[in-house]
Amino acid sequence: MTFELFIQNFFNALTVGSLYALIAIGYTMVYGILRFINFAHGDVFMVGAYFIFFGAATFALPWPLAAVAAIVGSAALGIIVDRIAYRPLREAPRISALISAIGVSFLLENLGLVIFTGLPRPAVQPEWMVNPIILGNIRILPISFIVPLVTAVLVMGLLWLVYRTRPGLAMRAISRDIETTRLMGVSIDRIIALTFGLGSALAAAAGIMWAMRYPQIHPFMGVMPGFKAFIAAVVGGIGSIQGAVLGGVLLGTVEIMAVAFYPELSGYRDAFAFVLLIVILLFRPTGLLGEKLDDKI
């Protein structure tokens, strides 16, 4: 592999890994508090991409304003899903919430199929994102620089919120002992709703940037990225925000570099994620940065 090709694939890996990281954070935040996997999370990623498509193409909003509207709308969707599908099951066995999450996932996918149709739509890309940056023999799209930068800013903002604010303190307290936290006067439902809203907003941001990187959207576009982001969360350590970021970047690097070094394996690209999951579960079940969590909440 030439140096130019390595640099090209390095930025591709960093871009894909950053997107996986943003989605994985939503999985890990919900699991850290409620100890269940929100399998509808990948479909919120899809909804975010559609929101910006209609905001920019149908309502002719400026692209930045359409992006903000898409993120806010997706955050609201996450809160609504929690209110309707998960909050009534707080005291039910955890498997009930898991089944509800799968049901919500199918609902969003098929609702998208009915409303948006199954016809793939081209994403609206700002002109400055389309013009490649040429460095010698290397051609890199601006999105390859924007995605890691935006991801870093969003993750730092989230870490500040979690470790430096009262809602963040409440989130960490709930993750350790939900009943004691409730007795201390914390509004559990509001904090959990905030968690769903934040996770959904990050998923929408990932969906928007994914549509800029792969400019085609359809109702099932969140299925495979959702699975891979879940794998990234497990690899990094489910329940750890830093672990989700590490897992996402690691997964993106393995996926892109394996195909770059061995092009004949490109048809098995999706399999690399599941192989990595199996290896991590065999040798470090808690993930790279994870810790053993008490299942009782």
What does this structure look like?
It is a single chain. With 297 residues, this protein is mainly α. The chain has one domain: ABC transporter involved in vitamin B12 uptake, BtuC (Orthogonal Bundle). It has helices at 3-34, 41-58, 63-86, 94-116, 127-130, 143-164, 166-176, 178-183, 188-213, 223-236, 241-261, 269-283, and strands at 133-135, 138-140. Strands 1-2 form a two-stranded antiparallel ribbon. Helix 1 packs antiparallel against helix 11 (241-261) and helix 2 crosses helix 10 (223-236). The radius of gyration is 19 Å and the shape is globular. The chain starts with a helix and ends in a 14-residue tail after the last helix. The model has no long low-confidence stretch (mean pLDDT 91).
What is the CATH top level name? Answer: Mainly Alpha
Uncertain segments are: none
Cα distance spanning the termini? 50 Å
Biggest sheet features? 2 strands, antiparallel
Class derived from helix and strand content: mainly alpha
Could you please say which CATH topology applies here?
A: ABC transporter involved in vitamin B12 uptake, BtuC
Shape: globular
The order of strands across the largest sheet is 1-2
Helices and strands, in order, run as HHHHHEEHHHHHHH
Cα-based radius of gyration, to the nearest Å: 19 Å
Mean residue pLDDT = 91
**What is the helix tally?**
12
For the secondary structure, the number of strands is: 2
Residue share in helices?
over 70%
Give the amount of beta strand, in percent.
under 5%
CATH architecture classification: Orthogonal Bundle
Domain count: 1
